Amino acid sequence: MIANNIQDALIQPEAEINAAPTKISGITRKITTYLRWLGSILIILSAVSFMLQGNAEILPAYRYWIGLGLTLLLCAGGLICAYLFHETKGARIFFGLGAAFLSVQVSQVAAMIYAYVQGTNASQPDYSWLQFSQVSPALIGIDLVITGLLLFLVSYASYSILARKHLKTLLWTSVIANALLILPIRDENIVPFIIAGLYFFIRKTECFLHNDASMRLAEGVAARAIISLPLWIMIGRSLLHPASFLLAVVISVILVIYCIYDLKRYTRSTFILYIAQWIGTLSAIAIWIAILAEFVSPRHLGFSSFLPIAVILFALSTQVDYHARLYRFISTLITLGLCYFALTEQQAMAPVVSIAVGILLTIAGIKYREKAPFIGGNICVAAGFLFYWEYAINLYTSAPWISSIALGLAVILLASYIENREKKIIAKSRIYFNELKSWH
Is the separation of the CB atoms in 377 and 386 below 8 Å? Predict the structure, then answer.
């Protein structure tokens, strides 16, 4: 009932404003926009300052209640804008900030529960202002109930005014994300899987919401950003504890997906996409380097260990917006170098891998009409077959007369083939080289 009244109060003034005969001038609109931005920034900075400054002497329970009071104050500001001023923009901002601050409240309750459950075994951050120990179970229970109630009411009101069409989806996603955030788990081998699962769950919801044009407006983007806050809080909280291999890999995967794939949905800025592309590329390479450092001893590292880097660059070349040819060129050079060292050191399966990789590079060169992968692929294929030249020599020395007869027959047949199809061979050779010249 309370949530429905809030929702009606927030939606009703919009119709009244649309029916009003007066029009807001452009200058006034700009001034009010700047003022709203300024006020929002001041509120956020004030809350961050309270959490980061020298407030270690404040008991954890009091710190939670101060944060709760700030959340309620923001909701009160939203009600004032809706009921008293009959204005919805300010109400959206206030309730949006209130819903965002609730994730901070959830994280504080989660810290209390974790400290109580784990006791002296709790892995506390080095910063005293992030430690929430020595809180009574009764108070933790009260905080949990209050937080859960406000999470539903404030989120309901916030998403109703920001994106009423997708209210159920946003509310359901927010509840699940915050429920995972409150779990009293800090194990370095479990938390990365929780982060990965939550990320893909939110990403799936985000892709669904992005398909709706109304969710690309400022209100829709704000609602989508709010539901992802628990994920970023969980990642930031995990970075305050001892790092682990799994966490590094999960964060790197998230960076790759976001920078290479997802960011294109939000902006077309050349500068932002360019920087994000290199961040994503370096993150993808870092994943493989982390795997090598974790599972492979430096003494057992071979040149073949770096072949996946060439594969990563080639795969990313199909997704990046800039320097795709450069990615494929570098990948080709790495592949050529690795095949050369593998063949010269006579590693097992080196010729087979060289031929297989060469065929793939040749096909890629034909597909993208690029000389570097095409020529590099031909070299790899030729090098792979030449590796077996030793067996041909051994065969010749063991039975020279058989090899000589076979070679003589092949030479005569080749001469006859060239003589009968001389013009076709010359014409096709010209077409081949002219086509190759036109490639990049």
Answer: no
